[in-house]
Design brief:
The chain is about 55% helix and about 5% strand. The chain has five helices and four strands, in the order βββαβαααα. It has helices at about 20-40, 45-55, 70-85, 100-115, 120, and strands spanning about 1-5, 10, 15-20, 40-45. By secondary structure, it is mainly alpha-helical. A hairpin with a 4-residue loop joins strand 2 and strand 3 (about 15-20).
């Protein structure tokens, strides 16, 4: 299983990846190519982060360094792994990592929708 991670909040300008979307696209493409070559499953954490970022630009997923995850970002990643490994939705899980219940529920739903898209991420 490959861990398709998230991009830096501001991209990687020194390597020509200007902005989050540009870097996320490059990360996604790279992991999916390798996964196809290896016939590996992908835990699409970066896709889930992109979904959150689409709806709330100040998503609170990154720490102040723009690279490492906050508790919210870590929780979303964990929910994606749960859905990918167990092939079932994390919706309704009682553990919320200290996040408000409504926020944890939203992240569980996003993780479920992204990770259980079998056609894209399972080999």
């Amino acid at each position: 299983m490959l861990y398709l991670t998230w991009a830096h909040r501001t991209g990687w300008p020194q390597d020509g990846l200007i902005g989050y979307a540009s870097m996320q696209s490059a990360v996604d493409d790279g992991y999916l190519v390798i996964a196809r070559e290896l016939h590996a499953t992908v835990a699409p954490v970066g896709y889930a982060w992109a979904k959150v970022f689409e709806t709330e630009a100040s998503s609170g997923l990154w720490q102040s360094d723009g690279s490492h995850p906050t508790i919210k970002g870590t929780y979303l990643a964990a929910c994606v792994f749960y859905a990918t490994v167990f092939r079932q939705s994390p919706n309704g899980l009682a553990y919320h990592a200290g996040l408000p219940k409504h926020e944890a529920s939203e992240l569980q739903a996003i993780a479920s929708n992204v990770a259980l898209d079998v056609s894209r991420f399972r080999q």
